[in-house]
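Hello K.,

You asked for the raw outputs rather than the summary table, so here they are, unedited. I folded two proteins back to back in the same session to keep the settings identical. This is the first:
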Amino acid sequence: MSSGNGRTTTIRVALVEDEAFVREAFAAMLDRMPGIVTVGTAVSGEEAVELAVRTVPDVMMVDIRIPGMAPLIDGIEVIRALGRCAPTVRCLVFTTLGTPGELRRAMAAGARGFLVKDTRPTQVLAAVQDVATGGYALSPALAAAVLRSGPSPLTARELDVLRLSRSHGSVRSIATQLHLAEGTVRNYLSTAIGKMGASSRGEAARTAEEQGWL
């Protein structure tokens, strides 16, 4: 990373990962990279925000699937929180098995990059450098999957009923929430299930969420 006077500066990186083996291995890998130093690690959403505010790293590498208490329930919520309380910290997501939906949500929350954990060290280094200097870094396979998935085929109402179907079990409850007739809700659910090529509304909701439509 180059400073304004042309000198090379160290990129300060913080790491958020709840699995001890992965966290320690990644921290050690980062510390071996030229021009990078790890300033701290966190194992939860709350710790991540506290660490970012206290150390103000250039880049925070965040796993999406981390524990936490509401409202910090995963890595994406951490990214949103940092946008409010530590806006100079640039977030780079790294996760085991990313989905197009996770990539869409992470980037919408303000992430500057998205990698999977089996990315080669040289590519991780390049991603950290790109993000630290204001650029973006995306897993090519996931970026291609997002492009292939295209826009959502579901209407706004079909999305509404699928979203509510995850927390409101009965058709009657969904109908009450949306001020619709029960038969109308059934029709929306049936159409959504068909569009998703699913066998149930639960499967349809999972598919829509994985694609980033829900």
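The second followed immediately with the same parameters:
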Amino acid sequence: MKNKKILIVGVTGFIGYHLAKYCLKKKWEVIGFSKNKPRDIRRLKKIKYIKGDLFKEKDLHKIKDKIDYVVNLGGYVDHSNKITTYKSHYIGCKNLSNYFLNKNLKSFIQMGSGGEYGKIDSPHKETFRCKPKSVYSRSKFLATKHLLRLNKKYNFPCTILRLYQTFGDKQAINRLIPIVITSCIKGKKFPCSEGKQYRDFVHVDDVVSAIIKCINKKKANGQIFNLGTGKPIKIKKLIILIRDKIGDGYPDFGKIKLRNEETLKIFPKVDKIKKLINWKPKTSLLKGLKKTIKAFEKQ
């Protein structure tokens, strides 16, 4: 049997790195597509790296291989520029899916966002009737609608994973858990909000396992799945937990003001993904934090 070929868009990012690493272990051929070169910490051997921008359709023609699976993790992490955010998360997805429309893909996985639900109260249940608030969330929702139209009209084999917060080894240090871990390792005082928000955190290993399950299950085609644990934690409790695990660090609660429009409770129902593709998170928050802290201490 020929090796499976997977195209990972955004391979130089946090989730892309972990997915690529997993696929290489399984002897899959990995082609990475990204606007930037990988940082040394996330560079992997045996990956064919292609530099390109999804917004530029001509760049997609650099992909010469016959691809079995596409996983779209692409898009700007910085959402301050509204036009760039819209282009990278919606137009980019549209260009990518249209490019592969008649290329006999087995699976196209789109990394969506729990933010697509917007003003809908938690726990979120998978629905097509969403009220996204930010440009980023609206762009993700437009991408979801586009893909499901392709699925309905052309039987395009897409799956949307609406991801909540993820964490793990080699995550950028501008995210909550890495900020807290690195500050505590250094014994620093660091600003925080009051920490009264509730958020759902899923370990990156479980995110990768969900992607692989969706690739391998025909039942996943044309579906939207929430990707989280369904067990939110209060941010203040999370910060104190990390501090206590490390034994140092001084969180300055209340120093950062909450945004006026910030939703206090954001978390998903995960019954559908458990039932339909038999996925559930295997890494508990405590186990995941322990692994992540250990990795950051080594770094």
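Residues 170-200+230-266+283-298 form a domain with the UDP-galactose 4-epimerase; domain 1 fold (CATH 3.90.25.10).

Happy to rerun anything if the numbers look odd on your end.

Regards,
P.
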